[in-house]
Every structure is written in C-alpha cells, then in structure tokens.
Design goal:
Layout: H1 2-20, E1 28-35, E2 41-49, E3 55-63, E4 80-81, E5 89-95, E6 113-121, E7 124-131, H2 133-138, E8 140-148, E9 150-153, E10 157-165, E11 173-180, E12 184-188, E13 194-204, E14 211-221, E15 236-239
Parallel strand pairs: 5-7, 8-14, 12-15
Antiparallel strand pairs: 1-2, 1-15, 2-3, 4-5, 6-7, 8-10, 9-10, 10-11, 12-13, 13-14
C-alpha cells in the first residue's frame, strides 16, 4: 500500500511540475496571430516543442500589451474556430478525446454537438461546441494541395482562382475555391513572403450545427506573394 501511495505521489509531482513550469521551459514555437477587430485583444494560435518529445498547442487570448508565453493553463477550450472572433464573442469547436480501449466500429455516429459550454476570458465570452470523436472524424473530407493564381478577399471569405493540384496521382483543376474566414493560417518568411496558406475548412449546418464536412487545404501561390496582400481580419499570420 505504501508503495502504491508513493507511485501516486510521484505521478502527481511530475504532472504539476509540467503544468506549472510550462512558462519557464525553453520552447521552440510556431506562432500565429489574429487581431480581434475593435479591441486591443489578440488571439494567438501556437504549436510548441519543449524537447524530449514534449509537444503542446492551442489558442491563447491576450491583450496587445502582453507578451506571449507558452502556458497551457491559459489555453482556450477549443481546437477550431466556428466564426471570426469579434469584440464580444469567440465561438470555438472541440471534439471528445478518443477512447482507444473501448473503440468499436459499431459506435453510433453523432454529428451534432453533444455539449455546449461558455466562459469569460479577458473580457470576451468564449462559447464552445463539443462533438463526438467518431462523428467528427467520420466527416473528415481529406486533403487538397493546390497552387493558386490569384485571389479575391471579402469581409467574411477568400476566393482563390485557377488552382492546380500538385500532389495527387490524378491532378485536379479548380476554377475557384471559396473559403470562409475562420481557420486560415498564413505561414511566411520574415520578409512576409508566403510559404503556405493552411486551411481547415470546417463546415457546420446553419440550422442544426451538425458537421457537414471538414477538409484540409494547403495552398501556395504560383508566383511570389506577400502576406500583406491579405488583410489581418479573420486570418492568422505567422509571427516571429
């Protein structure tokens, strides 16, 4: 019994040491920022490696006067955005963690949210829809990797034109591709030259909030293009 208690104590010590010391760890971080219109708030999206196979990621909301630091205790409770954040509200989407021990192909798929929650963070309301893992994964629509000729940006979306598939065995051509501004990330060099535009095109039903599809796109411009060709509204841009 004493041995068992010692094991529990060691586990608790390791867990809380990681939790409370995440800020002081040396992190290698890919950081993307989206300014929230009408506020001094910035939504940060990050992926960080702390060595020894330690990988963390998430979203953190800060005021523009604050300096970003990796701190998992500040992570917002979602993995995707549902809409463009505004000065009052951020709407997020999350899915359950998979239960590999009890996984079964016989699980009835549920495509509607199974739970909704809300909290306040830095003066903004955060609303999150939680989905069943199996239903969320069932609506995964694959991957598209394209080069695009040009684009048109509107208030709530980006339309890319003359796209050529550069990965498939049977290349596909698209005259245009319209993407709603939510989960769009521009990776770039320090001189603002675009490396890639990474998109999670997650579509929900307007009536029921059921998942319709979720497709990933990696887009690159056919010619050199700078990230300031795009506005900052509703788009994450890499920060160094």
């Amino acid at each position: 019994m004493q041995c068992y208690k010692n094991l529990i104590s060691i586990f608790i010590f390791i867990y809380f040491s990681f939790f409370f010391n995440s800020c002081s760890r040396e992190w290698s971080t890919a950081l993307y920022v989206q300014k929230i219109e009408g506020t001094s708030k910035i939504l940060y999206k990050y992926n960080a490696s702390g060595g020894r196979d330690t990988m963390v990621s998430g979203y953190i909301l800060l005021d523009s006067t604050e300096t970003f630091e990796v701190d998992i205790s500040k992570n917002l409770p979602f993995s995707y955005l549902e809409d463009i954040p505004n000065k009052k509200l951020i709407k997020g989407i999350e899915f359950e963690q998979p239960n590999y021990e009890n996984s079964s192909n016989d699980v009835k798929k549920n495509f509607a949210p199974i739970k909704e929650s809300s909290l306040s963070e830095n003066g903004l309301k955060i609303k999150t829809k939680l989905f069943q893992y199996e239903g969320f994964m069932e609506r995964n629509s694959g991957l598209g990797t394209f080069e695009f000729e040009n684009f048109k940006e509107t208030r709530d979306s980006i339309i890319f034109y003359n796209l050529n598939d550069i990965k498939s065995m049977e290349p596909e051509h698209l005259d245009s591709l319209k993407i709603k501004k939510t989960n769009i990330v521009i990776r770039q060099k320090k001189n603002l030259e675009i490396i890639s535009i990474d998109i999670e095109d997650l579509i929900l039903s307007k009536n029921t909030s059921e998942i319709i599809s979720n497709k990933t796109y990696f887009l690159t411009p056919k010619k050199k293009m700078k990230s300031n060709s795009f506005t900052d509204y509703g788009i994450f841009k890499e920060q160094f």
